User: What shape does this take?
Amino acid sequence: MKKLFVVLVMLAAMNAYSQMYPPPNGSVCPGSILFNWDDVPLAVSYRIQVITGATTIIDADGLLQSQYLVLAGILQSNTQYYWRIKANLQGGGGNWSVQWLFNTLSLPNSPSLLLPPNNATNVPINTTFDWSDVSGATYYIFQLSKYPLFDSLVVNDTTPLPFITLQYNTQYYWRIKSGNSCGTGNWSSVWTFQTSIIGPPAPPLLICDTANVPLTPILDWNSLPSVMSYRVQVSTSPTFASTIINTVVNVSQYTVPSGILNYNSHYYWRVNATNVAGTGPWSTLCSFNTIAQSGIINISSEVPTENKLYSNYPNPFNPTTKIKFAMPKAGDAKVIVYDLMGREIQTLVNERLQAGTYETTFDGSTLNSGVYFYKLATDGFTETKKMLMLK
Assistant: This one.
């Protein structure tokens, strides 16, 4: 019975193996690799084989421990291998284990540098650094220096990079290397660039005229040194969601051509400047009202007894409607149209009038359907009414 038990144990040992490293279908880094497996009962030694394709790379027998160190340089990178073990028992050899597959990795290649270009000049101080992706890389190490040998580093960091602000009129050198779980590859080539001598220009200072502006005004601002051009924008919106003028000029003023602005309208404008270092921020906004159209009609010479703003007619309207108001004495009068949000749409009247009853026309052809308000403001009197445009 004891002999039968020993035979059963030996048979079990001949067929039961537990390989531990490299794991099945695992990936390992190149270099020294320690193959490891569980001890087999009654084994006096072990044999290991490592195979790729039809070639046996390693066949080591008589191993006294359940592990085997393969030194660096024997296995190749980026290669698929199979390995198996067999326990040598006191009563005879056991069976081979099943073959386990593993792959060797490799250190990633060097990236190719892209931006800023090598030997570039006038590079902005907030430039973007870019390089080619490297297959198998999981991170990159970035170095930036003022010295070609990288004796002292401005930046030495892994991606993602921190925000980098460079100095004006400075020569820089940079390089990249990629890495993965096995380590880092070689450095890329070294590229160099020169930052711009000066920074982007400051925002221009606008000269603002606010009322009774003609339809072809001269928009004027202070001249800035070393500026190559200015961009002028004019809009009916303070957010400049759309523009009616968006043009570039080489001098510090711009004359609005005829046919662009409308009578009795409110506009916003701004300017920025560009030099060799880039484009500076926008100026603060200026706004203005264009002159009133000579379309105010005195419809009665009889002197009214009170200030009054009449209901527009027709109402609803599309796209024009008439607005009538009365003034019992001479004075400054304004009639202004607002949208539902209280934003000024158009100034219909902005002048000094004699006592009388007047009528003016509002043209909403450029506006959307909706509710609008119109207000009369004269000496010591204001009144607002609502009107509806339906297209």
